[in-house]
Design a protein that fits this description.
Elements (H helix, E strand, L loop, with lengths): L3 H17 L4 E17 L2 E19 L2 E7 L4 H17 L32 H16 L4 E20 L4 E17 L6 E9 L8 H14 L9 E7 L1 H14 L2 H6 L19 E3 L22 E5 L2 E2 L6 H7 L7 E3 L5 E3 L4 E3 L6 H6 L3 E9 L9 E12 L2 E14 H7 E3 L9 E2 L3 E9 L2
Parallel strand pairs: 7-14, 13-18
Antiparallel strand pairs: 1-2, 1-4, 2-3, 4-5, 5-6, 7-19, 8-9, 8-13, 9-10, 11-12, 14-15, 15-16, 16-19, 17-19
Helix pairs in contact: 3-4
Length: 448
Amino acid sequence: MLTVEQARERVEDIVARAKRAGADAADAVIAADRSTAVSVRMGALEDVERSESEELGLRVFVGRRSASVSSSDIAPETVAGLVDRVLAMAREAPEDPWAGLAPEVRLLHGAPPQLDLDDGAQEGPAALKERALAAEDAARAVAGVTNSEGGSASAGRTITALATSHGFAGAYALTSHMTSASVLAGTGDAKQRDGAWHSARHAALLEAPEAIGRLAGDRTVARLNPGRVESGAMPVVFDRRVSGGLLGHLAGAIAGASIARGTSFLQDALGTRVFAPGVTIRDDPHRPRGLRSRPFDGEGLAVMPFDLVVDGMLESWLLDSAAARQLGLEPTGHAVRSIGGGPMTSPSNLYMEPGREPRETLIGAIARGVYVTELIGHGINGVTGDYSRGAAGFLIENGELTRPVSEITIAGNLKDMFLAITPASDLEFRYGANAPTLRIDGMMIAGD
């Protein structure tokens, strides 16, 4: 596997080759990955997987024409052929008035921020097996658990390098560690399944596998004997397991490409109220050891903490350079780069600030409603904001969680849902996108 320095030197060399061959501009990205994963079931080893890969993506510009190629073979002799092919492709591509590299004045210069994303851990299969077994054993020990889908543990390290022909070259490494367990409770047609997992950049930050397993078992047993709920409008409370998904819908709606194409339900919302007063949503690429932290974006731009929504008001789009040019704005440092194509936009560590009320207070004020712990399907219309998804969770009666419910559908429109959100005070940073427990009044429930 390449070192960080080797990866940076390699992309610089590839870009220089493209320039010498006739490209007006070029950028290149390399992703090198090494990972090990172990899975167990019913106390026995089930699978051990080891993977290593090195991939290259090269994009060249000939005037306003561009083309991209990718390869899993980054040997110098292979790269020479790739450069020739991608230049031939670019010369035949249609012109794009918005194409080009990021503004040179916005490139990251100097030392990148130190985000502590690489713990240097080299966990082997034996240690991963021990962690997976501990998680599954703890889950199976919960009273009421009758079967197991298994436990798993993984560890990996990724190196990302990017270079552009107008002066940027950077690379960084990050590690990832994960533990999970999934079990079943009940018998026959009454079986229920649930699980738990935790992921961290540093192995030392992982929750104990026994705690993950117990949580998986408790969640599964709590779902036994679910009922239905009557159809109608009522409050819905989103557990932290699923509340961050609403931030994902926001990110998609304010992505520059969607705005430029006119295909977003928030098309004309910049500078207007889109959330309830008091709601603030931030993006922080500099969060130390964050799951989506990054020292620079996919075009080599400097990144910084960013306010997207302040006191309910939408402050910015998420813009890469192409979308910014089309909209007459400046890029926001939210470009991400895939190996096989040009930049797209994506947030980093996206989160909603906590509210003032404890979770118990949000629930305690509800006479009858639904507490959602699982969402099913992808019934989101990004153009209109219409929202309809299958759900499972618990019935709220007189301020208390009572019996489990399943096979229901919750529906609304994201514009109305955002304006009706009340966040609890229980934010924790556990996923890439994080929100506290959220209450939304007046959603439609389709049940019995």
